[in-house]
Amino acid sequence: MPHSISESQGDGDETPTRLPFPPVTKKHILNCSYHSWHPKYRTLTPKTRLVPLTRPFVDYLRADGIVLPEDDDPPAQMTSDTDSAYVSASDNPDANDDDEDEDPSAQWREVHRAIRATIEELGGAVMPKLNWSAPKDATYMNANTMKCHKPSDIYLLLKSSDFITHDLEHAYDDCVDASEGEQLSEDDIPYHLVLRKANPHWNPSVEFRCFVRDRKLLCISQRDMNYYQFLHKMQDKIQSLIREFFEIRLQNTFEDDSFVFDVYIPQTYDRVWLVDINPWASRTDPLLYSWQELLEMDAPLEEPEDELLQGGFVRLSIDPAKRQQMMDILAKQEAEMQASESVEHAEDSEDEDSAEEDLYLPELRLVHPEDPEAAMFSSTQYSAHKMPKDVVDASQSGNGLADFAKEWEKILADRQRADAAYDSGDDAT
């Protein structure tokens, strides 16, 4: 999700200071694209399908205005060589050259069919996103939900979202090429539509954002900005689950050393789903942290290695005549040490296990009841992306999302007529 704050604002007239981020490469942004990492981690994610997008479809998303195609394919046009069966446009006064424009999907019908088939494959309801962002800021256009049942639901969300516009127009903002020979441009981005099967039991309270710097898990933040009492009672379990998941699945397998990943811990709270991977960049929302805090946070301590490995090995040259004597002495010492350790082990095993578990758990930051965020329960998110009430009313008129464009055009026409009447009244005076 785009996050626009890239500088820390000083007091008064002080010049803003840029956060001390290392250069963000275009390759890093591309590595965090869903289509790049999903094949490797597919078994760790909720059921998801990717639809490659063609250039005409991407152009449709970028175009101004909202014109939605029919969800079903248009009927095949019947033609005949006989004069009686063929009706030309010149013979039909209602026909015009704009007929093709009425179906915006004419140039990407295969993509439309693939989306429709994928929705059916995933049970009839999906949650859409592009390479990096989901259109969460546009849910007001879809009855305040991300759940889509038809292709037109998806198109309306995508075209109404500023987050999607960021993916399309600003993916490489403030980025550098990894090397002089690497010249990546936004025109080369392979855009994909990501469709995740809608889960009616999905609980946003157990979504977490995890911050990795130099392949070390620094900390974890609650994603949903509301207070949940039960989370505070299972902090240790959440920290342990996510730490184990990271060390086994992501720590040494993801392409970049620093990144941010989102996870979901479903009930019975004994496994972790990978939901998304985000860039280590100011565009990623730090949620309950600040980027200044994350950049300056101390890295976790390295776990101590086995003493034998720390000491290494010493190769000795022993006189063969004294070898047996030396072996007898070493055997006796080894037996005494084992006897002593067996007694101590019985007494200290529980303490050692506890110390090992507590050696390192990443910080988990949750919303507390006294926090300002706790007062946001059921409040509307993304207020910066709200639209006029007329737009919302038109999108929820009950006629279906496919009719929204016509309804909105009518509203615009009424407003234009009212403005014209007002202007003519001013001219008369």
From TrEMBL:
Record field: compositional bias (Acidic residues): 94-104, 347-356
Keyword line: Cell cycle, Cell division
A GO BP annotation: cell division
Top-rank taxon, per record: Eukaryota
InterPro entries tied to this protein: CDC123 (IPR009772)
Keyword RNA-binding among UniProt keywords: no
Composition skew (Polar residues), residue ranges: 77-87
Keyword Cell division among UniProt keywords: yes
A Pfam family reported for this protein in Swiss-Prot or TrEMBL: D123
Family indicated by similarity: Belongs to the CDC123 family.
Protein name per its UniProtKB record: Cell division cycle protein
